[in-house]
Design brief:
Chain lengths: 115, 395
């Protein structure tokens, strides 16, 4: 029942690779992961960038790992997410243009010949 | 199959176009007007927020203990330099924001007194990196110009804002000790670590001596002149024309020109020799400074010099060869020489990659630490103190 509910939501339906929906789903996944990392306070560990430990409680290796996770998710969020969203918009606009072009009322050649 | 290939090609093409649109625009998300970072006259919003965070550290001993422990775990020098940069910043802030002067002066005195107490109780090695104990200083008794120069400049900066009689003999003693060592050493090169001398420390020492001359009517202009003449002749890297960072007491180079040193050196030189300072800044800007897609940053070494990443350079980001240490100190250089374009682009990078964290009007950069934030605060406030010495207006 629950599975059916999620499947009905278009955004969670499995999309074709590199389709507009696929790009948007990836953008959303990255955003959710980044938000979770940020709310978990992982940004405090980024002081490893200057060689300072982020926390005196957590082991240095774990702190460095958490910093790396946060930095990767942050860069993905600020660089990749807008690119994915923009690409999705470009694809949608492109598809709409193609569709409009396909449906345009062009006079068939045989009709021109008849007249 | 054909339609799948078509879709993939279209997707990749869309991603490429999107990247071409987004990447040149990315900096606009983080770019702020220059006045957000630095204002003349007065204090910029960023200066106030950074200062609020530092003042909190000096009123909350638990918080301060935590911050200092984190830094000391990596480098004891940072604990000391964080104090120096904060005192120098607060001195400039007193001149920029006279209404808050009592609070700033109180904090400056607290920092200076605690630093002097720690130096007295724990000895000079407390603020030095571990390797200082591995060898003997060539000149005995052992003294570090690193400590003497910055403490002297802290005392002088405090007295520049408002005279404090207790600090007058302390400054005189520190300055006389440094001058005495300069005069005894024919090469005029003093150790910060055993047989290891730093350009940074020499320039800060000469600034302190110049300020002491201003405050107490002494005259060491000949010493300053001779030292600068020697440095121009012996301590300049031939390829880049930049002053080298560290050398032995015989003047043999240890490190070449480095971004983590030269930006502050150019700032310090401004008080001693304006033309030479500007020349050094312009060379550093050309050799080390860079702006890519609106983001400013700095390299640690010029192209002509190969160096190893160390505690001063911080991690080097490969590809762009970005040095955290050099980029942080570049703020001081750009601010000193009113290089608005570079300063704005550096501030853009800071907000992009520094992970700013604001709570109740207090700002800290998570990717930085207390000393890094104090150096940034200095970049937002510097100017009035140097100006006061240069124009000769007595306190």
């Amino acid at each position: 029942m629950i599975k059916l509910f999620w499947q009905r939501l278009a955004v969670f339906q499995r999309a074709e690779f590199l389709s507009a929906r696929d790009l948007l789903q990836r953008a959303m996944a990255i955003s959710v992961l980044f938000l979770a990392a940020h709310l978990a306070g992982l940004h405090a560990f980024t002081s490893v960038l200057n060689g300072t430990v982020g926390s005196l409680v957590v082991e240095v290796k774990l702190g460095t790992f958490l910093a790396a996770v946060y930095i990767i998710l942050y860069l993905a969020f600020v660089i990749l997410v807008p690119v994915l969203v923009l690409a999705a918009v470009i694809l949608m606009v492109g598809q709409r243009c193609v569709r409009t072009k396909g449906n345009s009322p062009v006079t068939p050649r045989h009709k021109i010949l008849k007249t | 199959m054909k339609s799948r290939m078509k879709r993939i090609v279209a997707g990749l093409l869309a991603l490429m176009i999107a990247a071409l649109i987004w990447l040149p625009c990315l900096h606009l998300v983080f770019a702020r007007p220059l006045s957000d970072f630095r204002q003349d006259p007065g204090l910029s919003p960023k200066a106030r927020q950074l200062a609020a965070r530092h003042l909190e550290l000096w009123t909350d001993p638990v918080l301060r203990e935590q911050e200092l422990k984190k830094m000391r775990a990596s480098n004891a020098e940072w604990d000391f330099m964080g104090r120096s940069y904060l005192v120098w910043s607060l001195a400039n802030m007193c001149l920029r924001d006279p209404v808050s002067k009592p609070l700033y002066l109180q904090t400056m005195d607290q920092i200076i007194d605690e630093t002097l107490r720690l130096e007295k109780e724990q000895g000079m090695y407390f603020f030095l990196m571990g390797y200082a104990k591995e060898r003997h200083y060539l000149r005995q008794p052992a003294q570090s110009l690193f400590l003497d120069s910055e403490i002297a400049l802290m005392l002088a900066s405090r007295r520049m804002v408002e005279e404090k009689p207790e600090y007058k003999p302390l400054l005189t003693e520190r300055v006389n000790a440094m001058v005495g060592r300069f005069q005894k050493n024919p090469g005029m090169l003093l150790e910060s670590y055993p047989d290891e001398c730093w350009m940074f420390d020499h320039c800060v020492a000469l600034d302190a001596i110049k300020m002491a001359d201003y405050l107490d009517g002494s005259n060491h202009s000949a010493l300053i002149h001779d030292w600068l003449a020697m440095a121009k002749q012996k301590l300049v890297d031939r390829e880049s024309g930049l002053l080298i960072s560290s050398f032995t007491t015989d003047g043999v180079p240890l490190d070449g020109p480095e971004g983590s040193t030269i930006w502050m050196v150019a700032h310090s030189l401004q008080l001693l020799d304006e033309d030479f300072a500007r020349d050094q800044y312009q060379r550093a800007r050309k050799e080390l400074g860079a702006i890519t897609l609106g983001f400013g940053y700095a390299h640690e070494w010029p192209k002509s010099w190969k160096g190893q990443a160390d505690v001063d350079s911080g991690p080097i980001i490969p590809g762009f060869e970005i040095s955290a240490g050099s980029s942080g100190m570049a703020f001081i250089g750009a601010s000193t020489f009113d290089d608005g374009k570079f300063l704005t682009s550096l501030a853009t990078t800071l907000d992009f990659a520094g992970f700013p964290s604001r709570t109740r009007g207090r700002l800290k950069y998570c990717a930085s630490n207390q000393v890094g934030d104090a150096a940034l605060l200095y970049a937002t406030t510097l100017g009035p103190l140097w100006q006061k010495v240069k124009t000769g207006v007595k306190p």
